């Protein structure tokens, strides 16, 4: 029997399942037979040395790549081939290793751009900011302002993001992803390039998003302190294969994980 299109999942139910996924680029195998799941309302980390296949995995989950083998099931439904914007409409939003914002646009406009995925009125009405579009825009703007308050970025709401320091750009990018009200939020190295204070702020926001809104989060992160503090469960990849999966303390004491990280400068 086919699952309903929008099943109501409770905390701890499997939200996304990755089953035997492999991904190849010509002769290079980025992922080999990887399986794991992400449960509703958890913070799930994906870790591993450089080139382990972490970003490739996120790209499969949000539709940038389609697995060569295996399948991905989201909310109980085997995912058809889908593009990133379709995944976003389905409830999967992400941020990128290198910030991907509209640099000449303000913080507010970048976050509004993320919100546009939720807007229903057609282009004709939006063009004239009239009728249904007007009312809709007011509501969406209110939601975006809430995100701006939540992320404590009121002071930069009108600033073009290209002029902001990197740590703040990362925060705006998080805001844009939150504007999509995702069920699953994918964060690719959310702390990369940040100083200690910025990392603490970002950790706090990630925890608050998870706890206040119940948003399920999967993140790639190299800072092991952050990973161990934030995540409920950790999956470890090495050379495209899964080598461990468990709670932070289980993973930390796993000999294969210790070996994989020996000599790696993270
Ligand atoms: N578009 C692509 N074309 C060819 N090879 C690719 C492509 N994307 C990734 N790869 C290869 O797949 C492997 C996994 O790369 P991936 O970026 O997923 O690793 P990663 O764990 O995210 O690494 P890092 O921590 O350095 O970001 C690497 O060998 C990489 O060179």
UniProtKB/TrEMBL annotation:
One CC-aspect GO term: plasma membrane
SMART domains: AAA
Keyword Nucleotide-binding tagged: yes
Domain ABC transporter per the UniProt entry, residue ranges: 16-264
Keywords: ATP-binding, Nucleotide-binding, Transport
GO MF terms held by the record: ATP binding; ATP hydrolysis activity
PROSITE patterns membership: ABC_TRANSPORTER_2 (PS50893)
InterPro entries: AAA+_ATPase, ABC_AA/LPS_Transport, ABC_transporter-like_ATP-bd, BCA_ABC_TP_C, P-loop_NTPase
Gene3D superfamilies, per database record: P-loop containing nucleotide triphosphate hydrolases
Annotated protein name in UniProt: ABC transporter ATP-binding protein
Organism: Microvirga mediterraneensis
Taxonomic lineage: Bacteria, Pseudomonadati, Pseudomonadota, Alphaproteobacteria, Hyphomicrobiales
